[in-house]
Design goal:
Elements (H helix, E strand, L loop, with lengths): L1 E7 L7 H11 L4 E7 L6 H8 L3 E4 L4 H7 L2 E2 L1 H6 L4 E5 L2 E5 L2 H8 L8 E5 L3 H12 L3 E6 L12 E4 L10 E4 L14 H8 L4 E4 L7 H8 L3 E3 L2 H16 L5 H12 L2
Parallel strand pairs: 1-2, 1-3, 4-6, 7-8, 7-10, 8-9, 10-11, 11-12
Antiparallel strand pairs: 3-5, 5-6
Helix pairs in contact: 1-10, 5-6, 5-9, 9-10
GO molecular function, one term: shikimate 3-dehydrogenase (NADP+) activity
Pathway: Metabolic intermediate biosynthesis; chorismate biosynthesis; chorismate from D-erythrose 4-phosphate and phosphoenolpyruvate: step 4/7
Organism: Campylobacter estrildidarum
Length: 261
């Protein structure tokens, strides 16, 4: 029996337990998946072993910390310094990042992207910037402050107030703005200057139409929320949790079914 969970703060909005538990049931596996709200000041490594998890998904704001505490990291995690999936074996922590590859699956319908703007500079932004750059796409990171710009040395960065270039094919909201309130990632006037020139938009938030999402629709962009990214990062994490191969379509369908309940 595997004891699994998604950890973050806030966390009650997460639909991951519905996805994973239904996949466990449909595929006839032994395990249970829950959610757990972490204190932002805790010792993450100590807490994971104390709670006895076999593996976990990590969400905001702990993805960089998840990477730091791991004994072994996969290639994407090592490149970006951020992990969203941890496996605990023999008192060791193995870190993976499935956010980036999940995101690429989600935007397969967005074509001919040359330039992308990512709003926010957290762990999710790191993953998305990396996979976009690997696809040959020019990436710019824009944020309210420059505290985390040190992690984006290979990308163009700017504060919102200093942004001069407003021409991007794809605009991504990687922040939590709008998740539990009606806020935008940045000043509306700045955002409108960006959206009026864009063709596509993506909001990592998946459980509501945020003000960002609504504004993108107002400007007639082809826009997606984070639902498909949630689904696919979950599929890839599930494969890691249970060491599965050639079951991807079954996992995806089971998780989709779980989200319909």
């Amino acid at each position: 029996m595997k004891f699994l969970a998604v950890l973050g703060n806030p966390i009650m909005h997460s639909k991951s337990p519905r996805m994973h538990n239904n996949a466990i049931k449909i595929l006839g596996l032994k395990g249970i998946y829950t959610r757990y709200c972490l204190n932002k000041d805790l010792n993450l490594r100590e807490e994971l072993f104390r709670l006895g998890f076999d593996a976990v998904n990590i969400t905001a704001p702990f993805k960089e910390k998840a990477y730091e505490i791991a004994d072994f990291k996969d290639e994407i995690s090592s490149q970006i310094g951020s992990s969203n999936t941890l496996c605990l074996k023999n008192n060791k922590i193995y870190a993976y990042n499935t956010d980036g590859i999940g995101f690429l699956e989600a935007i397969k319908g967005f074509e001919n992207i040359k330039k992308a703007l990512i709003l926010g500079a957290g762990g999710t932004a790191l993953a998305l910037a990396y996979v976009l750059k690997q696809k040959g796409i020019e990436v710019c990171i824009v944020n309210r402050n420059d505290r985390k710009f040190q992690y984006f040395n290979s990308y163009q960065t700017s504060l919102y107030k200093n942004l001069k270039d407003f021409y991007f094919d794809l605009v991504i909201n990687s922040t939590s703005a709008g998740l539990i309130d009606e806020s935008l990632p940045c000043d509306k006037n700045v955002l409108e200057k960006i959206l009026i020139n864009a063709r596509f938009a993506f909001d990592v938030i998946y459980n509501k139409e945020t003000p960002f999402y609504k504004l993108c629709k107002k400007y007639n962009l082809k826009v997606k929320n984070g639902f498909e990214m949630l689904l696919w990062q979950g599929v890839f994490a599930f494969e890691i949790f249970f060491e599965l191969k050639n079951k991807r379509e079954e996992i995806k369908n089971a998780m989709l079914q779980g989200l319909k309940f």
